[in-house]
User: What shape does this take?
Amino acid sequence: MIELFKLYGMTASLYTGKVRAYLRFNQVPFVEEKAGSDRFNMVVRKAVGRWIVPVVETPEGAFIQDGSNILDYFEQEGFSKRSIYPDDPRLRAIAHLFELFGSEGLLRPAMHYRWNFDETNLDFLKVSFEDIFQDGLAPEEQEAAFLKSSGAMRKATLFFGAVPEVEGTVETSYAEFLSLLSAHLEEMPFLLGGYPTVGDYGLFGPLWAHLGRDPKPLHLMQTTAPRVHRWTERMNMSEQFIDETTAKTGPDLVSGDHVPDTLKALMRFIAEDYLPEITAHIAYTNEWLADNPNPSETHNPKIRAIGMASFDWRGHTIKSAVMPYRCYLLQRLHDTFDAMSADQQAELRNLFSETGLESLLDLRATRRVVRKDHLEVWE
Assistant: This one.
């Protein structure tokens, strides 16, 4: 008898989408249970200490929370058809760059296109959000539950900097990103070549759950960036599909010695679009840590943000929520860089310098973030 893993999540959840795609692609035996189920509310929430998705329950009854931690678990347990962490540390660092940018840097367009187009999206979202409602709610109770949960998400849209005065710039920036990713996907089926890495899964969360499913951005993606939409389909299927693009690259990744120009263009986009934000966040974090030498006594880690940081973004000055989780993801890039040989570090530094990202290699919080009891805490 096959022992099944259980994924607790939500159809419309960015981070659930990242995990579900990995499980499907690697043919992990699992069932998905909605986050509004009795078991989730009575058992899982207590086990992980808060309402958050995704959570995976192992056949032995253990719980794993957080998309990156869940992928790490299955990777370490040997479920990956091909490792999501490239052997070449230069490629691994690039994969972690896109893991960070996808998971956090695409939140502004993801939230904007979900919550600022009610005339197109609202009825669809009401159905999608039923995953987090308790069973048996009357229609008026469902409506109240949706208004409460969606209201919290609309506030989060503002926390991620998607304020009304920058909506047009968000759309221009996202259109540029789609164009760059489309050009890259003309040459290869996945970010780094013939199969997905952790960088693909980082990008996939927002590009599927929000931007590739909700009606308004889905139409935009299908009509302006059909190759990106096709990539979301490849990411969300268990079988390998061989077409002209996969034939170009074969089953392997690109060489770390010859990073494609189309990938460099995407890295330059990250330098322009996200580097100012993460730089401001680390500066805010280090000031906050200096003022809070015992952060476990002054901050409840169940509250994800420690404050709001201002930064200049494409001609605007905006604010977004500073979260230790972003430090945690950035550390994964730094840990890969620090483990490299001196020659490899020099090569990666040259690449990051060429693409405007060199400062990211030295952008570090004064304390590490670790995950303990399903929470981000300061080491």
About this structure: Strands lie at 5-9, 30-34, 55-57, 63-65, 307-313, 316-322, 369-372, 375-378. The CA atoms of residues 111 and 157 lie 5 Å apart. The radius of gyration is 20 Å. The chain has 17 helices and eight strands.
